[in-house]
Amino acid sequence: MLAVVCLLVVAGLPAGSSGAGTTGTGVLRVLQMNLCNSGRAGCYSGRAVRQAVDVIAAEAPDVVTLNEICRDDVVTLERTLRAARSGGTVVSAFQAAGDRPSGGPTRCNNGEPYGIGLLARLDDGDARPSVHRGTYPAQDFADPEERVWLCVRAAGLHACTTHLANTSAQVALAQCGQLLGTVVPGVRGDAVSAPTVVGGDLNLRAGGTPDVRSCVPVGYRRIDDGARQQILASSGVTICCRRAVDMRGATDHPALLATMIRSWSPPPPGLY
After folding, report:
1. Which of 11, 49, 72, 138 could lock 174 by a disulfide, CB 3.0 to 4.6 Å apart?
2. Are 140 and 167 in contact (CB under 8 A)?
3. Can you tell me where the transmembrane regions are (predicted)?
């Protein structure tokens, strides 16, 4: 029944519009991708960004969360999202992962900073979105890469992404707790009527040890790709549909697409 309602809402929107950034009830489409584009990992193909361009052009999402990318990849993919659908303002942000030995950013093989990125299509009225970023206090010191988080806060939407530790599940769980329990509420502030979406490769599974669900706040909705990529949404958002999108061997992860119905009803007092 929920899927039917979602499809009816989508069908009721004007062509080329998802209702993102609007008041009332609308549909929000979030696309999570891990592109394995550092050039250093065995999953690197050199084709992931081109494939991501094709997926974004075909799906025209409202939010794209990006892991394992080089800084200039964000520029290419922002241009693609802007061209995928008219209307609204597309904003982008990038955050480099830290490199503990050098004290600088981790770098791709091409010399660019390596890390995570975020694209979002906002209402034209969201003229001054703010970008928030940081490094987790919990890190696996056996791994030279320091894991980070990235968020964009706007009047109608808060969106965040991260790529958590892959060398220690306990560290990944601590980072997840920090993101959802401290970072996201801090970014939201008192603007709890706007929905929050989080996408990323959390390197934690539902049913795993530890279980990713143990760090998800009460009231949040969550879907995954059957493995470690997750998309979460705050109270007031219903995830009605999910779909794995084939990346045609360009990376070792499928893309994960979530379709959400959102309402501007504020969450119950004390939920956050």
Report:
1. 138
2. yes
3. none
